[in-house]
Amino acid sequence: MKLVINSLSKTYANGVHALKDVSLTLNNGMFGLLGPNGAGKSSLMRTIATLQEADSGSVMLDELDVLKDKTRVRQLLGYLPQEFGVYPKIPAERMLDHIAQLKGVGNAGERKELVQGLLEKVNLFKDRKKNLGTYSGGMKQRFGIAQALIGAPKLIIVDEPTAGLDPAERNRFYNLLSQLGENTIVILSTHIVEDVSTLCSNFAIICLGEVLYAGDPETAVKALDGKIYSKAIDKSELKYYNEVYSVISTQLKSGKLHIRILMEHGTPQDGFITTTPNLEDVYFSNIAKRVDINTI
Length: 296
Ligand SMILES: Nc1ncnc2c1ncn2[C@@H]1O[C@H](COP(=O)(O)OP(=O)(O)OP(=O)(O)O)[C@@H](O)[C@H]1O
What we know:
Helix content: 25-40%
Radius of gyration: 21 Å
CATH superfamily of the largest domain: P-loop containing nucleotide triphosphate hydrolases
Strand content: 25-35%
Bound molecules: adenosine-5'-triphosphate
Number of strands: 14
Strand order of the largest sheet: 6-7-8-3-9-10
Family: Belongs to the ABC transporter superfamily.
Organism: Mucilaginibacter ximonensis
Oligomer: single chain
Domain ABC transporter: 3-233
Protein name: ABC transporter ATP-binding protein
Number of helices: 10
InterPro entries: AAA+_ATPase, ABC_transporter-like_ATP-bd, ABC_transporter-like_CS, P-loop_NTPase
CATH class of the largest domain: Alpha Beta
């Protein structure tokens, strides 16, 4: 399958221009949508999920016009929103059975098999009788994926699913997501660069409603080879370095500020050492073109 987003724009009633001429092409596999808070990631996902209208542009899923043929899209879609409520007094198993019924799985035996399979897949089988209100954040997210998978969707959208998860739960969630991507398009929105480097074969960086970069992580990192330098400085020196260099990230370690700079041409003075680029450098060097990275 192929999802082609062409010149999508959206301005909210309050005047916020949340999507500016967004164009992207997504194939089967995991696609990461990376951007800081307020970048427009949720706006884009809600539009693709047929939950809100765009002002202009088009979204095509193969031959299907996503913005027009909403009912058909919803039949092909699995969606895990950023925040979703659960009925606290209902066990996971019963809730999944109910959702499967709503999605049109009428046969009780078929439903039982489907629900059991999903619970096993997301590692909640032993907790299936527990009320959803007693689930931890990670268990809720895994439940969220199970409900999104009902109906064998061809397009799966997950909006910041790892926010707030501890490292073990995040890993469990990564493992789960990485099994989904092969025959489906999975769009994963996140502001965590590691999510993209771990999971995604392709990604885009979006900031202030605009696509700043789209491609595969390896090529993106390779393009920065020999251009990233680092140095430990005193905090008081940051102003100087900000004025002289393109500082793309700062990190405090044992009282010293470790800065990384991008040199498009030439080599820096001041005792910088050359360093191996990573996806975070790709992210910050793109974002730094639009916003002050010290504020994000
Ligand atoms: N319903 C709305 N009405 C008005 N403005 C909105 C609405 N939804 C989002 N916005 C604004 O649109 C911009 C993009 O928001 P969006 O939620 O799409 O970003 P995001 O990248 O998902 O951010 P986050 O990572 O914080 O969830 C922000 O400035 C936000 O305040």
